[in-house]
Design goal:
The complex is a heterodimer of chains A (about 180) and B (about 190).
Chain A lengths: L9 H7 L2 E4 L7 E4 L1 H5 L1 H15 L6 E5 L3 H12 L2 E5 L9 E7 L4 E7 L8 E9 L3 H12 L3 E10 L5 H4 L5 E6 L2
Parallel strand pairs in A: 3-4, 3-7, 7-8, 8-9
Antiparallel strand pairs in A: 1-2, 5-6
Chain B lengths: L11 H9 L1 E4 L7 E4 L1 H5 L1 H15 L6 E5 L3 H12 L2 E5 L9 E7 L4 E7 L8 E9 L3 H12 L3 E10 L14 E5 L8
Parallel strand pairs in B: 3-4, 3-7, 7-8, 8-9
Antiparallel strand pairs in B: 1-2, 5-6
Classes of the chains: A alpha/beta (about 180), B alpha/beta (about 190).
Organism (chain B): Hibiscus sabdariffa (roselle)
Catalytic activity (chain B): AMP + diphosphate = 5-phospho-alpha-D-ribose 1-diphosphate + adenine
Pathway (chain B): Purine metabolism; AMP biosynthesis via salvage pathway; AMP from adenine: step 1/1
């Protein structure tokens, strides 16, 4: 993530634009609400710019965004760097033929889907979501893309919850975040 | 109103956008010809044209709020908001938004659903547009308009990539204008 010594001056405004909602969705969870960031036109612009500055000109042809908050950040980045946007969705939302990947939740499992033919073998991809917690969702997205021969260059999130060790779960896949929340 | 009848007649971008949309027959059920915009998102030029057309239309209308309907409205709305200097406000299914919300119910073909917006996201007097990928009956967009009007915002227009012409959506949109880029694609040879 951005080094603490030389943190980009835009980062602190981005961080302070994120609202924390205690006990959502259940007691004990301090929910990182990015909707307030989306209301701050400069901070939202800066968020996108920070990702675009990092990934523009790096021959990335795919930005995959995870439903639903990844759909908010992914498309502006994709448009700015000249890449396609590929939505990674909950089951039964995508209308065409899909490939699926099951992943663990705290209790039980869920499924992530991607359209067949959306990406080609050999393409270079980013995966975008608003936040990384345990890394389970991002790992499922990585698997889906790698199954069709795509090279996942990096995972990018606005926020990381480092205590949940998502970065370790991604293994050898690099992770870039703007804000680390303890 | 369709873009082609409202200043963009013959604009080649509209044809490129239409060509990039895929029709998936019988989804989510028999008889529905689903207009799939995910193929538009794979076509960088056509996706950019889509956003550009909305941006050109709204950038000088003093719009401070772009509201996008979950989930496909999220794919178009934020880029428009960023380009015109407006806030992006997600309108979501129940229980997704973490803070205090207001809710508006609307009719589905079978049953009802509900759309929510965060309290405080929008202020009275703000000028807003609502963005979604497609308008069919207009039920969802009507609920979106009601949510924004309840907090005193002025809904200037609803913008959709695709509009089903044969459905009288206009009647269900609380008198608000509707701006649509393309009609649904027919499937070839069907």
């Amino acid at each position: 993530m951005a080094s603490q010594d030389e943190q980009d001056p835009r980062i602190s405004k981005i961080s302070s634009a994120i609202r924390v909602i205690p006990n959502f969705p259940k007691p004990g969870i301090m929910f990182q609400d990015i909707t307030t960031l989306l209301l701050d036109t400069k901070a939202f612009r800066d968020t996108i710019d920070l990702f675009v500055e990092r990934y523009g000109g790096k021959d990335i042809s795919v930005v995959a965004g995870i439903e639903a908050r990844g759909f908010i950040f992914g498309p502006p980045i994709a448009l700015a760097i000249g890449a396609k946007f590929v939505p990674m969705r909950k089951p039964n939302k995508l209308p065409g033929e899909v490939i699926s990947e099951e992943y663990s939740l705290e209790y039980g499992t869920d499924i992530m889907e991607m359209h067949v033919g959306a990406v080609q073998a050999g393409e270079r991809a980013l995966i975008i979501d608003d936040l990384i917690a345990t890394g389970g969702t991002l790992c499922a997205a990585i698997k889906l893309l790698e199954r069709v021969g795509v090279h996942v260059v990096e995972c990018a999130c606005v926020i990381e919850l480092p205590e949940l060790k998502g970065r370790e779960r991604l293994g050898d896949k690099p992770l870039f975040v703007l804000v680390s929340s303890t | 109103m369709f873009a082609a009848e409202n200043g963009l007649k013959g604009d080649p971008r509209l044809q490129a956008i239409s060509n990039a949309i895929r029709v998936v027959p019988h989804f989510p059920k028999q008889g529905i010809m689903f207009q799939d915009i995910t193929t538009l998102l794979l076509d960088h030029k056509a996706f950019k044209h889509t956003v550009d057309i909305f941006v050109e239309r709204y950038k000088d209308m003093d719009i401070s709020v772009v509201a996008g309907v979950e989930a496909r409205g999220f794919m178009f709305g934020p880029s428009i908001a960023l380009a015109i200097g407006a806030k992006f406000v997600p309108l979501r299914k129940p229980k997704k938004l973490p803070g205090e919300v207001i809710a508006e119910a609307y009719e589905l073909e079978y049953g009802r659903d509900c759309l929510e917006m965060h309290v405080g996201a929008v202020e009275a007097g703000e000028r807003a547009i609502v963005i979604d990928d497609l308008v069919a009956t207009g039920g969802t967009l009507s609920a979106a308009i009601r949510l924004l009007e309840r907090v005193g915002a002025q809904v200037v227009e609803c913008g959709c990539v695709i509009g089903l012409r044969e459905v009288k959506g206009q009647l269900r949109l609380n008198g608000k204008p509707l701006y649509i880029l393309v009609e649904p694609r027919e499937i070839d040879g069907c």
